[in-house]
Amino acid sequence: MSDLDRAIAQLRACRLIPESQVRELCYKARELLIEEGNVVCVDAPVTVCGDIHGQFHDLMELFRVGGDVPDTNYLFMGDFVDRGFYSLESFLLLLCLKVRYPDRITLIRGNHESRQITTVYGFYDECIRKYGSANVWRYCCEVFDYLALGALVLGASAELEPTGPVYNDTALSTNDDNELETEVLNSKGDVTMSTYRPRQRTSLDNGSVSPTRDQVPLRTGAPGTGASGSGAGSYGSRTGAVLCVHGGLSPLIDTVDKIRLIDRKQEVPHEGAMCDLLWSDPDEIDGWGLSPRGAGFLFGADIVKQFNYKNDLSLIARAHQLVMEGYKEMFDGGIVTVWSAPNYCYRCGNVAAILELGEDASNGGTVTRSNGDYGRSNGILSSAVDKPPLRSPGRRYRVFEAAAQDTRGMPAKKPVADYFL
Amino acid sequence: MSASQIPNLNTFRRGAGRGRLRGRGGHEGPGSTSRGQKDRVVQGTDNDASVSRLSAVGLGYLEDPFASALTPPGQETRRLPIINRGTYVRTTAIDQLVARFLGSTTDSDPSWKQKRKQIISLGAGSDTRVFRLLTSPSPPNIVYHEIDFAVNNAAKIKAIRGTPLLQRALGHREDIAISDVGDALHSPVYHIHPVDLRTLANRAGDTTDVPSVKDPVGQLRETLDVTLPTLILSECCLVYLSPDEAAGVVRYFTETLFPPSNPKSETLGLVLYEPIRPEDAFGRTMVANLATRGIQLQTLHEYASLEAQRKRLRQQGFDGGQAAADVDFLWERWVSEEEKERVAGLEMLDEIEEWKLLAQHYCVAWGWREGCDRFDGWRALEGQSVEG
Where are the residues of the annotated region Disordered (chain B) (predicted)? Predict the structure, then answer.
C-alpha cells in the first residue's frame, strides 16, 4: 500500500494525516492542477456535485449514494471548506483522490476557496485548532489558487436509461414517442419523479419518418468545444456541452473562451470576471442585477439563454446557493443549482443532491476534445446561420439526507448550531 | 464557526468531552431534579445571548458600552455574520418599540413623552437595555424592573458591583440596595427581582393572595407602580415555559397587577421576541437541535405563526392593537437603506439563503391595551400581514 493509499484510508476514517504529508500532498496537487486549463474538459459519464462545506460524514454519504472513486467519475464544483466541522478531512480526502486518480475526479474553485473567506467562515480556525499552526491553512490556500474556474462536460447523452420502476410519475409512461429526460432518485435508489420529452428522430432512424424540423448543416463538432468538422455530433442526439462553474456568469464573460484568458493563479479578487464566476447567482430578473452578497452579480433568464446559445451549451450547472430540495432547475432547464451539503450547517433541514450525466453512446463513445479556440472555424457564418436548438442532457438527480450521526462513526458530541436564544 | 466550537478530534478518541452543558451558574448537587437541570439549561441560554451581543458589538453592528461588562469573561467569540445580523435586527427592532413606547422618537406626542413610565423585562438576565436607556443623552423618565432566576441575577449584580461603568449608570451608590445573598437589587429607577416566573403564573388570578413584602414576589408588587404606562418585554423568555405557565405569567400582569377595571389603569404593552414556524424543515431541525442541548421551546407549537402570535396578544388582553413581523421582514422594512448598507459593509455575508431561513424563524410581536390616556406610539409601525 502506497503512502497515498494509506493517507486515503486514514482520511476516509476521518483521521487527519501528519502536517508533513499534507505539505507533500499539496505540492503534488499543485503540480497537477497547474497543468489544467481554467476550464477543464470532462467526458461524460460524470457525477456533478455542489457545495460540501466540511460536512465530512455527508461527503461519505455522497460517495455511498453516488458510487466510490474511481468507479464513479466526479466533478466537484467548489466550496469544499468552511462552515462544517471537518473541512480539513473533507478537502484533504478530495485532494488525495485527485492526486491518486487525476482523471476520475475534477475539482473546481468555489468562493470559499479563498484566504479571506476562510478566515471568517471557519477553515482557518479549524486548521489552527487541529494542527496548532497556520501552516496547513497556507498549504491549502496555495492549492486553492491553482484550482480550475470551470469545467465543460462533453458527450453527455440526451436520453437517460431508465433506472427501474417508476413511482409518482409526472408524465405518461414510457413509450416510443417519449424519452426519459430527468429522473429523481432517493438515496435508496427508488425513483421518486421522472419527466419525459418527445423523442426526436435521428438520421439513423427509419428514413420514411420525416425529420421533425429542417436540417441545417452543422458547423461545429461536439458542442461547446469549438471543434470544427463533421466527424461528431450526429443530428438529433446532439446535446450541448454542460458548463460547470461554482457561482455563475459574469457581464465581462460572453464566451467560454474568455474564461480561458483569465490569469487564475491568485487569491479570488473582490471584483472582475474571476470573482463573478465564483460569486454570481441566477435570479428572476431581466439582464444583470446587483448581488445582495456584495460580490458577483445576479443574472436573468435572457443572459443564460444568450450565453448558452452563443457557446453551444445546453445547460449550466452551478452550486453556491442552498436549495432545500438539493437541486433546482431554472430558466426552462437552462441552468441548474446543485447543492450537496444536506442539513447545511447542521441547521437548515435541507436535503442534498448530485447530478449524474450519462454518456452518449450513439457516436461510438468518441468525443471530440476541445481545441480551446471556439469559433475559429467559421466565425462569420455562425452568426448568420440559425443554429438548431440543442437538446439538453438527460439528468439523473440522486437526492440524499444527512448521514445519520450515531451510526456512521460520528463523534458522540453533536455539532452545536447557533440560534438566537 | 468559531474555533472554540470546533470539536477537537483528539478528545473524541479518548472518549472525553461528552455531554457538557453550556449553562453556567447553578449550585445544585448531583442529586438535583431534572427540573433543576432543565432550569440550568434555560439559565444558560442567557449566556448564549450575551456572547452573541458582545460579538455584534465588537464588530460594530451595535453600540453598547455595557456589553463587555455583562458577558462572562473568557467567553468572547466571533459569531457568524448571520448571527450577528440577527442580533442586530432583534436588538434594534425592540429598541425602536421601546423608544416609541417611551415617546422618545422625534414624532412622539409631547404630552405622552412627559409621562413617567415603567418597563418590566421578563427573564432579563444579562440584558444591557436598562443601562443604555439610563445613560442615553436625554434619559427617559422611567423605572425599570427585571425579573429572573436568582442565579442569573446574582451574576448580574456581581458584575454591577465590580464595574464602575455600570454603577455610575444607576446613579448614587447610596441609593442602591442589594440583598444579603446578592440576588436582588433596588434603586429609585432600577429593580432586579429574584423571581421564578412560574410562581407568578401560579398566583395569577388570585387577587386575595398578597404575599409578604419580604417575599421577592411581595417586593415586586410593592415596587411596581400600577398607575404608570407599563411595557412588558419578553425576549426569548416565555417560550421556555409551558403554554399554561406562559399565559399565566401574562395574566398575572394583565389581571392581577394591572386589572383593566382599575380606573387609574394606563397603557399596558407587551413585546415578545420568539422563534416561530417549527413545522417546516428548518423549524423541525431547530427543535431537534435545541432538544439535544436540553432546550425545549414549550410554547413554540402553540404560537407557531405570526397570526397565532397576534391572536395570542388579542386573547390575553392586549385589545388596543396587535402586530407581528419576522426578523427577515424587520431587516427588509424597518432598517433604513443607509443603515443596511453600513451593516452589510461590516462583514461579507455569503449566506443569503441561510440568513432568510434563519430570519424567517424568529419574530417580534407587540400588542397593547389602552389606558385612560391614548397611546399612539406603535400605530405607525409596520407589521407583517402576510406570512413569509
Answer: 1-47
What cell was used for B274? 420568539
Q: Does B343 touch chain A (CB under 8 A)?
A: no
Q: Kindly list the averaged pLDDT for each block of 10 residues, start to end, along chain A of length 421.
A: 93 96 97 97 97 97 96 98 96 98 98 95 96 97 98 93 61 65 92 87 46 41 44 53 98 97 96 97 97 93 97 97 97 97 94 95 56 42 62 94 65 62 78
Q: What distance in Å separates the CA atoms of residue B116 and residue B17, rounded to the nearest whole number?
A: 51
Residue pointed to by grid coordinates 439559565: B43
To which H or E segment does residue B120 belong? strand B117-122
**Alpha-carbon distance B41 to B23, whole Å?**
5
| Helix, strand, coil fractions of chain B, as percent rounded to 5 | 45, 15, 45
Cα gap B73→B92, rounded to integer Å = 25
Cell of residue A191, nine digits: 425513483
Q: What is the pLDDT of residues B269-322, one digit of tens each?
A: 999 999 999 999 999 999 999 998 888 999 999 999 999 999 999 999 999 999
pLDDT for the residue A205: 45
Does B345 score more than 50 pLDDT?
yes
Alpha-carbon gap, residue A12 to A34, rounded angstroms: 26
CB B316 within 8 A of CB B259: no
Across the interface, whether the CB atoms of A412 and B12 are under 8 A apart is answered: yes
The residue ranking higher by pLDDT, B16 or B381, is B381
Nearest one of B107, B143, B161 to B224, comparing CA atoms: B143
The C-alpha cell at A230 is 463533421
Q: Find chain A residues with C-beta within 8 A of B352's C-beta.
A: 292-293, 321
Tell me if chain B has a CB within 8 Å of the CB of A97: no
What are the pLDDT digits (tens) for B20-54? 333 333 343 444 457 788 888 887 777 888 999 99
Taking an 8 Å cut-off on Cβ atoms, the answer to whether A121 and B1 are in contact is: yes
A-contacting residues of B 51-90, CB under 8 Å? 52, 79-81, 83, 86-87, 90
The residue of chain B with its CA nearest to that of A414 is: B292
Rounded CA separation B286/B297 (Å): 10
Cβ–Cβ < 8 Å for A145, A122: no
Q: How far is it, in rounded angstroms, from Cα A65 to Cα A185?
A: 10
| Cβ neighbours of A348 in B, within 8 Å | 281-282, 285, 354, 357
Cβ atoms A348, B357 nearer than 8 A: yes
Tell me: pLDDT of B139 over 50. Answer: yes
| DSSP-derived pairing of the beta strands B230-235 and B117-122 | parallel
pLDDT tens across B192-240, in order? Answer: 999 999 999 988 766 666 667 778 999 999 999 999 999 999 999 999 9
**Nearest residue in B to A324, CA atom:** B281
SS3 A327: strand
> Exposed e or buried b for every residue in A69-90, given b needs 16+ CB within 10 A?
beebbbbbbbbbbbbbbbbbbb
In B142-293, beta strands by DSSP E: 142-148, 177-178, 185-186, 190-194, 230-235, 268-275
Tell me the sheet residues that pair with A245. A150, A318
What are A314's three cell numbers?
A: 445546453
Rounded CA gap, A403 and A417, in Å? 16
Whole-model pTM: value is 0.83
Cα A77 from Cα A244, distance rounded (Å): 7
Instruction: Enumerate the β-bridge partners of residue A154.
Output: A43
Taking the Cβ of residue B3 and every Cβ of chain A, the question of whether any pair is shorter than 8 Å is answered with yes
CB distance B256 to B362 below 8 Å: no
User: In the structure grid, which three cell numbers stand for residue B255, read together?
Assistant: 389581571
Q: Is the dihedral of CA B273, B277, B282, B286 positive or negative?
A: positive
Identity at A43, one-letter amino acid code: D
Q: Would you call A290 an interface residue with chain B, using a CB distance cutoff of 8 Å?
A: no
